[in-house]
Amino acid sequence: MKPTYNVLILGASYGSLFSTKLLLAGHSVTLVCTPPTAELINREGTLVRFPIRGRDTLVEIYSDKLAGQLSASIPEGVEPTEFDLVVLGMQESQYSSAGVREMMARIAAARLPSLAIMNMPPLPYLARIPGLATDQLEGCFVEPSVWDGFEPGLVSLASPDPQAFRPPEEPKNVLQVGLPTNFKAAHFEDEEHTRILRDLQADIEAILYDPGDGATEIPVKLKVHDSIFVPLAKWPMLLAGNYRCIQRDGMISIREAVHGDIEMAKDAYGWAGELCTNLGAAETDLVPFEKYARAAEGLAKPSSAARALFSGAKHIERVDCLIQRIASQQGLQSDTVDKIVDLVDERLGKNRAATA
To answer: Range(s) for CATH 3.40.50.720 in the chain?
Structure first.
């Protein structure tokens, strides 16, 4: 009989995508979110819309019709020892907010395996990369002390490759998948914890869902890898596309950032790939630029980082800063990265001054 897991997911927006996959496979999920969203989800559940190849319309999957059990909680209501796995699906700056910070301390004390689905690798995960001076990277984090109690071996990382968004006209329990790619996760140091991920991978792989006209495979899978560098394959994409959406006086789409100057995008992508291989990644851990460029053709919106910046955010995930500092430790430098960091610093400074 296959094991059933109880999974705690921090973040109900992007987290509801991963939770839907787990619920389809019969596992139990608790989403951690704000009080109004928790009340909404506990009352109505979640709705995630998936694009399916060969179908003209999106497939709608309601959580209350699935095999697994879903609940939602505010941070103060979470008792970590009740769970088998924690999924960190919030933006990096959110972990230092009131209530969440204290919950993170309880999670660390419970010594639970924690899978971060984040562009910004947590400091304990970075500590698993040989030779990195993580103390020199703390300035890229809003509140690095949030991660102090976490053991590196208990923290893994999955790249948030699937693209999803909350339709602005819909309630906060609705999510729409735009790019249905896979979560690529690194293993934990302990094989017992990695087995949880592999069990979830197998369960998700086996899912067939009937939307009313016959069973069909639902995209967005979990892929578990033995290399800790596989999730870092997102770094070249972030530099070539996501962060280059940010212009001095506005933002552009990821598609335009990549294809508006394909050679510059390719250079940034290759430089970030070189950084990853310097750290220990194999070429097979990374995604070829041509494959990424094809995917970028369908990304007609600016990145979430760009949208947040130009909506007045005082904090965004600073993977640009992180890459710059790690590169410096490796003796590498990029004018493109330096320009990105300067632009983000400038825009954040304006946003903070406007609310001071």
So the answer is: 6-225
